[in-house]
């Protein structure tokens, strides 16, 4: 690092900010010379450089002041300490948008948590007086700006920053951590615009924008000229064709005039024909009317007599309908009474049936009483023969105790048998799976073939790559190992789940190489040519296969740990070396269920970061700041590739244990049956007398109940006779009603017959009269139809005459009472007087007029109008062509002013970019790319790089290169801009993430060498870590950021006391 004796920077502008008064900075490190020389002139700062950054309640900071140097500023600190907070302060303090940082879209999110307001103050160097910008922010997303102590708007600050050539929105000048990946995603056009703004002359980007606008205006002029010329040509051609149309138009007009004259005479001829027809129809109508009147006078009396008969028939028919309804109603009532009689007869039958059932019950009751008495006598005799028996209760109790003991023993044996059966079922299922797997292994000859088959199903590309490797292994100079799925041999199938859980599947299927050049050649053939998706791994340069664990396993056995992962499998040395280096398998212990039970004590051990119990994986994390311990546990996955188990021996042991249990169970069953039989006999002996007494008492109760409920047949028979008599009385009343309805229906039927005979006589007379009138009626109807038809036709012809008259008067422009004009009479006299001749002449003229098709009515007017347009277009086209020529000359001059300096600038960038890549033994080029020379909005900068000798130059994109390669390319491009830069400072945040150590060291040296030149501007390089033994320069400033619970508050920091302690420590440690 920089020399510790370098004198401390003194800030003479500190009094301009309240933040720096009496508040020592929280940043330590070597600092450059004072930013202002002793004579008052500025030192190495360029106009717009940052002299001071003060933050109050901003993100991670409570109070902090940063005093950067004029050249390279290296800001170093662990993740989370607040490095990127300085980047955010620079962006937001210089009126940058929150979207540029990728952290949040609201300014209130940048206030320190727990506070309501915060502030940023930035002091910028400027000739004639420094610029101090202060921005106060609040959680309500409000901002207050001051410029040099005076309140102002954000627009004023943006104009001031723009005047100092500061562009925080330009990725070539300001590259925050969240936007590092977006640099490679920039298109060629975006990269060109960013470069022009960053390192080009102030007018270069303006010229570029003007050229794009000029080109757009040129296209508009070209399109206008072409459109005008085409329109002029079409107009000329159109007027040439219109001359012929004009002649045809006038000839057609003569035929149309004749058609119009014929159309005017036609209504008059048609009117005269219709008028004559109307007079003829009117005469015929009057004759029919006379004949009809005479016929009606002779036909009237007969019609009146028929009407009189109809009047007599109507009341008689109404009476017949009434009588018919009454007859039906009487029949309905008669049927209803008969149905009631049937139901009463059924009721009598039911009463008799119930009495018969009671007779049957009486007979059964007598039989039951006799049987019960017989049984009671037999039981009393048996009870008399039963003598006194000895007391058997003590023996019964002893047998019950022994049976309970046997029952408990049987329950224990049943439980053990269930456990063994369940374990055996699991073993049988696993055995079937293993036997099926073994059959597959026997078919494929070995275990390796089985693993290959699984891999083929799971990842076909990897299997294809294995086949290619086996055929082309001679192409490689070092060891090349097939995927770990094939070369790892687990010592015990139980260990497989730990190994598969610990190692990522992408590494399990990855090819491991001893040499990098072999890996690159393999990936070029397999990935680039064969288009296979495979993984490749490089073994560590220094073997880690013999790494020892941090503690012997014996010291961990008290927690239940019995082995490290490294001891659970066998593999080639290179594979073991990679797993020890990448996964620390030599230092990851595996425990048992005891470990799970003691997990709270286990995670307190500081040296255990990753452990395994019988079924779970635990990751232990400890905070660097608060020492808080957090754990993350997950269930172990069953092994899919590395396990093959044999359960036959376990099943045999379980069968032997189960047979022993069955034998013991059989002995207990035999003894249990003996005791139960003995107990049963004693109980029967003890309870026989009591049973007999209970049976006798039960039978006596039953006999008493039967006698109590005996049936009284005599009373039942009397009740039955009474019920039947009542029902018969009801039947007699119903029969009387039925007979009355029958008589009523007979009388109504006789009246109906008498009325029907009257109707027949009247109807016969009516029929005779109607037959006599039929012939005269037909003649009368015929005359009426003829009169109606003629009357309608007369009215229609009359209306038609009036319509034709009006039509003729309208066509000839005559009034309602006007006469035909004299000129029309003369013209009509030359035309035919019949409709046939008029139609023939009209059709002839129409045919001739229709022959002139495609002629528009406005052809003459259009021809004259277009002649005027052609003259105007010729004048306008001449003016536009002259303006386009002048515009192209001016644009050519503007192109020279922009393109020549731009090509020179790109050449300078290319020289430095290529030089930096050559110093890293790589190749890089920068050129100006355009598809068409005149398409100025398509110009762009193309960056092409090559990091390996075996590859070609490829354009830098977000997908082709790796993350480290993109970071190197981005950093070197920014370095190529550094010496050409006209911007006052540049910020790059954590761009070295993803670089390998070799490239990171090379890039760092280039950054130090370039950014520390006197001709370059200020540079901020933020990184969380640095490699050892780097080269540093006197001009650079290193700012170390610390954070954590042990940090002193800003008020307790005493910089002078700290420097005194350092000096005393150096003096004590200095050798004699």
From TrEMBL:
Entry-linked SUPFAM superfamilies: P-loop containing nucleoside triphosphate hydrolases
GO MF term (any one): ATP binding
Biased composition (Basic residues): 1-10
Chain intervals for the UniProt region annotation (Disordered): 1-41
Intracellular or extracellular location(s): Chromosome
Biased composition (Polar residues): 13-23
Keywords: Chromosome, Coiled coil
Coiled-coil boundaries: 232-298, 327-454, 644-723, 856-890
Keyword Coiled coil included in the entry's annotation: yes
A single BP term in Gene Ontology: double-strand break repair via homologous recombination
Assigned GO CC terms: chromosome, telomeric region; nucleus; Smc5-Smc6 complex
Family of the protein in this entry: Belongs to the SMC family. SMC5 subfamily.
Protein name: Structural maintenance of chromosomes protein 5
